[in-house]
Batch of 2 targets.
Target 1
Amino acid sequence: MTYQDARTPGLQDGILHHLTYTIGKDAAHATLHDWRLALSFAVRDRIVDSWFASTRASYEAGAKRVYYLSMEFLIGRLLGDALVNLRLDGEAKAAVEGLGLDFDAVLHDEPDAALGNGGLGRLAACFLESLSTLACPAMGYGIRYEHGLFRQSFDNGRQVEAPETWLQQRHVWEFERPEAAYSIGFGGHVAEQDGRMVWTPAEAVLAEAYDTPVVGWEARWTNTLRLWAARAIDPLDLARFNHGDHVGAAVPEMLARAISRVLYPDDTTEAGKELRLKQEYFFTAASLHDILRRFDSEHGDIRLLPEKVAIQLNDTHPAIAGPELVRLLHDTRGLPFDEAVDIARRTLNYTNHTLLPEALEKWPVPLMARLLPRHMMLIERIDADHAARFPARATHAVADGEVNMGALSFIMANRVNGVSALHTGLMKQTVFADLHALHPGRIVNQTNGVTPRRWLHACNPRLAGIITGTIGEGWIGDLERLAELEPHLGDAGLQQAIAGAKRANKADLADWIGATHGLSVDPDAMFDVQIKRIHEYKRQHLNILEAVALWQAIRANPDAGWTPRIKIFAGKAAPGYVFAKKIIRLVNDVAAVLNADPVTSRYLKVIFLPNYNVTLAERLIPAADLSEQISTAGKEASGTGNMKFALNGALTVGTLDGANVEIRDHVGAENFFLFGMTAEEVVARRAVEGHAGQAIAADPRLAAALAAIHDGAVSPGDPTRYHDITGNLRGPDYFLVCSDFADYWRAQREVDAAYRDAAHWTRMAALNTARSGWFSSDRTIRGYMAEIWGAASLGPRA
Ligand code: 7GP
C-alpha cells in the first residue's frame, strides 16, 4: 500500500519534476547530491497531504495538544525513515535504479543531522516518531543549530574535533515560517506600571521558525518539529555601515546568530556559559509564545490551558518555562499570581535523565538576575511560596547563591518522571527525596523505548524480513507482537535464517571496516560492541582493561581454544573532558598493539570507529553479537542503545543498571550475561577504604593488565602516557572499575563459551528479539499520554 492518489504522479515523475524545476538541473548533468535532493522533495510532497490532514483533524477535534520541549533532537538522516514510514521504500528503490543510480549511494548522500549529544537527544527523536505513529496531536520544539555535534577524527589516536556542517547543504525537509517569529529579550530592568510588573529588556533577538514534518508509521499521522533560529531584529546597523564600519555594522547580526550557532557538546556538565542560558531561554520563550498563540486561536479562556495543553520539559534545559509561563499569565495577562502558578504547574511536566551531580543544572543567581531579571524575581517568589507551604521540610530552588533547575522544575511540574524503574526509584531516594516526601505521587516512571521503524525495520532489513515472513508485518506498528515469534523458534529453518541474517550483516560491516579503515576482520568472530558517549561511568576503560588482560592470557597460552572476538568501540568525548579523551587514546593505542600482534590477533582485535552518530549506529547494531552495557550500577539512568541491541538479536553483557534490569527481566536471566555489583553494593563498596587496591591484590590478572598499561606496553615511546588512568584506577576509582573487574572477566569467559555453541547462541539471540517488544517507544509514549499528559490519540485507527 502506498499513499498515492490520482493527483500524485509516480515517484519517478516526481523526482524528474523536482530535478528540473526545484533543483534546476538537467538529468544529464545532475550529481548524486542533485538526485538526492530531487528524491527528497518528491518524497516530501507525499508527506504534506498527511501533514495537512493531521493539522486539520487536531483543530477540528479541539483536542489536547502535547508539546515536547527539548534542547536536542538527534534525528539523523530523514530520507530512509520517511520512505519506510510512507511505505515507499520499494517504489523509491525501483525509481532510483530505473534512473541508473545506486539507491544506497543516494540515501548515504544525506548528512546526518546531529542536533543532539546522545541518549537524551535520540530519545526525543524516537518520541516524535512514536507520537506521530500513535496520532497524538503533538509538536516538538527545539533549536535549529547551524552546527550540530562536532565531527570526531583521530590524530595519533587522540580525538580531534571539527565543526559539523550539516546546514551547509540545503536542508530539504524543513519549511521556513517567517510569519512565526517572536522577539526574545534579555537583560534590562523591571519596573512597576499601573500595578503590574513590566520587564523592559536591554536587547532582543528574533526567533524564526523552521518546520519539519515528522511522519508516523504508514503515514497515519504527521506532527511537526519546529526549530528556532536566532536572527537580529535589525539585520544591519545601517548608520555604522554608511560611516564606513562595514564589519562593525554586521556585529548585531553575528551576536544574535550566535544563539543558534552551536550545540553545546557537553551532555553531563553544564557549560557554565551565559550563551547556554541564553539558548535555553531563547527556545523556551519562543515555544511558549507560539503555544499560547495557538491556544488563543482555538480556545477563549486561558484557565483551560491545563486541559488543552501538556508541555513536557526534556530535562531541565527548558526549565525556565516555569517562570516564563507565570510571567506571561501574571504580568502580561493579568491573572493573579497564585492562579498563574497553579495553571503553569498543571500544564508543565519534567523528565529527569541523569542523577550525576555535575549534570544537574544550577545557575548563579547574579547571572540569572542580569540576563532574566523578571524571571529571577518570579523564581524567588515561587520558591518562597512553596517553602512557606512546607515549613518543616522546605527544599529551596534558590540556595547557596544558585538556582537549582531540577528543584525548580519539580516545584513547577504536574508530573516528574524518571526513565527506568531503577532510576525512578533512585530519584525518590536521592536527588529528589525531600521534594518527593512533600509531593508523593508526583514522581512517576516511564521506562524509555526506541522506535522499531528505524531501529529494526529500516536498519536491519534482513532480520525484519524474516520476522515479517514468519508472523506477518503487524509487529512494525505493534512491537509486542514480536512475542508471536517465540513458538516458531524451534523451527530449524527459521534458526538458520536468523543466523544467516546476522552473518550477512556482519559480513557487510566487515567489508565496510576493511574498505574504510583498512582493518581486516573475520565475520565469524564475535562482534563485541560498545557504542555511546565516552564517560567514566559508562566504563569503556573496564572494557579495554579486559581486552589487555585477554591479550596477555592469549599470549601466555595461544592454543587454549580462544573464541575469536572483535571489540568495536565508538563514541565521542566532551571536548573539555580530559580523562574521557585519554580513554579514547588508550583504546586506540591498545588497538594498534593488539592488531599488530601476530600471535594474538587471530583471536582478538580492537577498533575504535571515529565519528559515532545515528548513521553509524544503524550500521553497527544489526551486526553486533554482544552488547556492552557495563556502567557502574546506579549511574546510567536508562540507556536506549541497550534496547536497540537486544531487539536486533545481540546478547547483553551488563550490570544491573538503568533499563538493563528490565531488559533482563523481559528476555530472561538465562539470555543475559549479568555481572557486577548492584547499585546498593556500589554505595557500600565505595565506603571501603582502599577498595581498588584490595581488588587488584586479589586478582593477578587485573594487576598485570594495569601494570602493562602503566609500564607503557601500549605506548612504548611514551611509557608514562597513561599514568593518570592507572593512577586513578589504583587510587580513588570512583566508578569501581577494579572492584567489578573479576566478575566482568568471569562473565566474558561465559560469553566466549556460549558463543562457541552457535545453535544455542542463535536461540538466545532470537529470544532477545522476540522478547524485546516492550521496549518500543510506542509503549513509552502511550504511558506518557495516559499517566502524564492526559492526551488522546486522534488517529484513523485510534
Ligand atoms: C541520558 C542518560 O544518560 C541515558 O541513560 C538515558 O537513556 C537517556 O538520557 C535518555 O533518557 N542522558 C543524557 O543524554 C543527558 O544528556 C544530561 O543527560 C542531562
Note: The chain has two domains: 62-77+112-445, 525-773.
Target 2
Amino acid sequence: IKHENDVVVIGAGGAGLIAAIEAKNNGANVVVIEKMEFPGGNTLISGGEYAAPENWIQNQKGLSDSKETFYKDIIKGGDNESDIKLAKVLAENALNGALWLRDSINVTFENRQMFFGGHSVERSLVPEGASGVELIKKLMKKAQELGIEVHLGTNGIELIRENNRVIGVKAKTETALHEYIAKNGVIIASGGFGSNLEMRKKYNSKMDEKILSTNTKGITGDGIILGENIGADTVDMEYIQTYPVCDPVNGSLLYTGDVRLAGSAILVNKEGKRFVEELERRDVISFAITEQTDGVGYLVWDQKQLDDTGVKKHHKEEYEGLIKRGILVKVNTLDEGAKHFNIDAKELKNSVEKYNGYTKTGKDLEFEKRGGLITLETPPYYILKVAPAIHHTMGGLVIDEKARVLDKKGKVIKGLYAAGEVTGDIHGKNRLGSNAIADITVFGRIAGKNIVLEK
Ligand code: ADP
C-alpha cells in the first residue's frame, strides 16, 4: 500500500509529534507512523519535567539563571563529552521551546519547579500532574486539530532512497506492507535503545540482563539501525544512563521517590548510613547504590515532606501499589521501618539525627547536599527500597545543528532528519534530569521546520 506525503515521521513520542506539528505549521503534509498501538513512547511515562533557564517561575521567585549557565551545566553534567554546537542549540532554545509548549500547544504547567541533580539552579518546569501524559495528550490533540495522521501499529523497517536521497520508509502493519513516500524526506524520532538487551550489551557489556529498564517496550533502537543501514554515523553508543530510584523488582521509575528532588529525603544503605549526596547526578547515585549491600538503597522521608511535595497525590496509583507490595512502608517509628527491611535501626536513627542537625545549620557536613535541607521529624515515616535501572541512551545518530543526519564522512544525508533520544552527542556521558524534554522539544521543532524549509 502506497502513501504519499511531504514528510514522514517515524515514532509518535514527544520528538516525533513535535516535529510533525512544526512541519505541518510550515506548510507540509505530514504523516506519523508509530509501531506501538498507542502514542507517547518514553515521553509518556516520563515525569515530563522541562529544564528552561530564565523561565517564568524563576522570574516569579527572583531566581537568577542564564542560557550560558544552563549550557555550562549540560557540558559539565556530560563530562565535557557533548558536541558543544548541539549543546549550545539546546541551551539557547530551551526557553523558547517551553513557551511554545505552553502557548501554542496549551500544555499546562504547574506553578512550581523541581530541582534535578547536576543543575546549578532550580530551573525545571513541571507539567500538570508531573507526568509526560500531559505533554502527549496536548500534542496529540494539536496534531489532530491540524489534520496530521498518526498511523498506529505501523513499524518502520527500511528507509527508501532514490538518487542518494531519502524519499520514504517501508513499514509493516500486522496485515500489510506499506510504502510511505515523502517528498521532503523522513524524520527519525524513534527514541533510544534502552529496551533492546542485545544492543545494550553490544555497546556496553555492563548493561546486561541483570539490570532492569525503565523504558517502554518499543524503545529498541530501530531508528539507529535504519540509519546505519544507509550509512548514517553513530556516536557515544556506550554511554547508557541508569536512573537511581527505580522499582527493585520490575525496574519502573518510581515517581514516589521524587520527594528527593524537592530537597527532602535521605538515602541510606542496609547499614543505616548515608552514602552519597541525594541530589548528585544520576550516574553517580546509581553507581553508589550498586556498591551497597544487596545493590539497593533506602529513601527515607516523613509525613510533612510527603504532603509538601504532593507526591502521593500526583502518583497515587504507584504509591498504593508500592505500599501493597511492601516496597514502600509507612511507619510510626524508624525502628519499625528498619525492622521491615532489615536495616540497622540504631545507625538509621543516628543518620536521621545527624542530618537533622545539618538542616538546622543549613550545611550538610558529610555530603554537602545542595538545595534547602529539610528536617525529617514528623511521623509517620516512609521508607522506600530502590535500585537503579536503565533509563536513557545518550548515544545515537549523528546530527548537525539543523537536525540533519550525517554519514561517516560528516556529510549530510539528503532527506534524512532525526530528533530526540535517537540522536547522540548532545548530553555527552550523562543527560541531566529534565533535559530530555527540552531536547525533544528544541530539536523536534528544528527538524520539523528544516525538513520543509531546506532545499
Ligand atoms: P523521544 O523521547 O525521543 O521523543 P520516545 O521514546 O518518546 O522518544 O518515542 C519514540 C517512539 O517511537 C515510541 O513511541 C516508539 O514506539 C516509536 N518507534 C520506535 N521504533 C519505531 C519504528 N521502527 N517504527 C515506528 N515507530 C517506532
Note: The chain has two domains: 2-193+394-453, 243-390.
